[in-house]
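Lay summary. Proteins are chains of building blocks that fold into shapes, and those shapes determine what they do. In this project we predict the shape from the chain. Here is one chain we studied, written as its sequence of building blocks.
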Amino acid sequence: MTALLLELPTSPLFLSRRNVASVEAMCDSQPLPIGSLTGRPDAAHVTVTSLDDLGQWMYARGGRITVHPTPHGVDLWVLHTTADGLPGAPVPVRVSVPVPAGEQTPGDFTASIAGDCWKGVA
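And here is the predicted shape, written in a compact code that computers can read:
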């Protein structure tokens, strides 16, 4: 006898897989760079390799950028955006890239960076 595992629509595993599937489906029609893609119940997390890649996401999807300093001379830049999910339920997407501390802010990003982000506030 084989046991059948059912995932409930509210289970963490189901939500994580749904979030990944939403980003993958979006990228099929709107190619965007993805270094890695990880699903969590609350959001899809994408890692990219450069500010140029982050800019592609920002121009394609919009959102706001926060900058989180670390004690290791690297800041983590995170774009908070969404992917289309079920009607009326967009999937939160966090696109991040590590950047050397003190990196000059590209002029095109200035309006998208949250005012208090330099303090590491999400």
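What the prediction tells us: The first helix runs from residue 12 to 29.
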